[in-house]
Amino acid sequence: MKIKSLLPVFLLASSVLLAACGGDANNAADVFADEMNRIADAVEQVQTAEDARNVAEIITDARARMDVATAEIEAMSDVEKAMMSSAHASKIAQAQARIATSMSMLAMRDPEALKIISAEFRKIKTPG
User: What residue spans define the domains of the chain?
Assistant: First the structure.
């Protein structure tokens, strides 16, 4: 049997599996990605150490939601994790890139503010 003829079957099976597990998997991944974007939005606005302290509070709040999402993701099967990851990787990667860019600019502008924010980032658990 040719691989080309198996492709539609594989795609159909994948979509059925994704629909079956998609509710919780997608919800947890959406929460994680949304919180990463919320953090990115906040970090992009930091100009001073005082701003950084306010962002640290946002990171703490986001971290609590991300911890719940991470626990849900870690409870998934490897297949569910793979499907969730492929569906949300781009959104999470974009948020991470925004955060990295903002942190790099902040390092040059206000190293003290960077230290404040970095301390909170070290507390974030990532799905594994």
Answer: 23-121
